[in-house]
UniProtKB/TrEMBL annotation:
It comes from the Bacteria. This is Four helix bundle protein. Residues 1-35 are annotated as: Disordered. Residues 1-12 have a biased composition (Basic and acidic residues).
Amino acid sequence: MKKEENKWDKVEGSASKSSGNLGSGAYTPQYAKKNAPRYSPKRTVRSFRDLEVYQVTIECSVIICAELIPILEKDKFPLVEGMRNCTLSIPLFIAEAHGMRFADFNRAAATLEQAVQGCNKMIVYLEQVQGLSHNADASFTEDMLNRYLRVRGKMLRLEQSWQKFQNTKR
């Protein structure tokens, strides 16, 4: 004797396919699925060194000064000094802004904006390197360029979160 099909038999996760218990196998939330990304809360920020934007920019500045600048100096690239100063100043601006965000929020926001402007300058420098230097690795400069683009967006969101905190504090 053949079991009669109803319209719910074809629906994934329907209760009629389960073992009789309505709750078993009916629905699996997104976070419990096998390949779902795990949620982990962000660590508490105790100093500017805990900020991801600082960590990424200091890493980029070290890599650029160690790997790219010597190649560009060998090529006699005209903007090496400006590029070095710019890449080293971005983490400094982030540290400065973090230090003064409670004392003078407007100055802290302006300093963080300077860090964002530094990221924009580094993107321009790296694009110029791609066009003018034949010895610089294109994939390396593209990777650095993408890192600065991502961290630039994170800085803008950091400023927004500082603004929210400033408004709730009052």
